[in-house]
Amino acid sequence: MSLAGAQTKLAAAVDEGGRISVPLNGSPSTHILKPDVPLLSGSVYNEAFCLTLARRINISAPHVTTGRAGKRTYLLVERYDRRYQSGRWRRLHQEDYCQALGRPPAAKYESNKTGIGGPTLKEMFALTRRQMPPTEILRLLDMVIFNVLACNTDGHAKNYSIMIRGNGVSLAPAYDVMCGEVWENVTKNLVHKIGDSNRGEQLEAKHWRQFARECGLNPRQVLDRVNTLAKSVISEVAAAEFEVAAMPAGGHPSLSHMRQAIVERGRLLLEQLQEGVAGEPINVEDSAPA
Prior knowledge:
The protein is α+β, with helices and mostly antiparallel strands. The chain has one domain (10-287). Helices cover 37% and strands 19% of the residues. The protein has seven helices and twelve strands. It has helices at residues 43-56, 97-100, 121-131, 134-149, 205-214, 219-245, 253-277; strands at residues 10-14, 20-21, 31-35, 64-69, 72-78, 82-85, 88-91, 93-96, 161-165, 168-171, 189-194, 197-199. A five-stranded antiparallel beta sheet has the order 2-1-3-5-4, covered by helices on one side. Helix 1 (43-56) crosses helix 6 (219-245), helix 5 crosses helix 6 (219-245) and helix 6 runs antiparallel to helix 7 (253-277). The longest helix has 27 residues, at 219-245.
């Protein structure tokens, strides 16, 4: 179990017949296998659910499935940094935002104990604006909003990455997204503040406007995007639950808890957006493009 990260995980290769093996002698892996985490009940289903939901609302995310090995369940994630070309698998180069911004892995959280400030959303958007097409700024915005909607409280800078190719740079798909709301022993604070708040359930229009201005985005467009994605999540969450329950590992009681938590978060954000926007005068700054 050699891959980096807090979760136990294994680099694996899956052949055309669906057989899982361990690549040897430098051969590229094609998937990442994550067994269940005893301290986090339903962790396999949780990540499968969140990534499936992301794909269902048109946020780029890897294809996943679940499985069972004896009494253990596992998540199998298709690697997006691999390409099958000319009869062989090839690695694609990527850097996470900690690497791209010159921070050590231990400083992946905006607030940490290393004495080095972790990457902020302002820095991440600035880097994206400098190095990538404008479309990637909007993709990053969608990922930030989705992490709030999914109640993902571990969306640190190493869980956002950049694909680097000879013909350009682009944002990597979403990955390592989990709903922290369903576990009592997991913090409910967001990694990155939205405006001056790090609590997803407390975010109002004013917080999104402040975040937009800090990151060089159009506040009105950001509010519209939060509204759109919240409605999309609410409409697709039941289908995502059904899709995960139909995977080889079957269903799990945590799936309904995640669905309820995410629907509640979406409805709360929509309600607080309406309260914050109603009757507000249009600011000239809000008319600028993103």
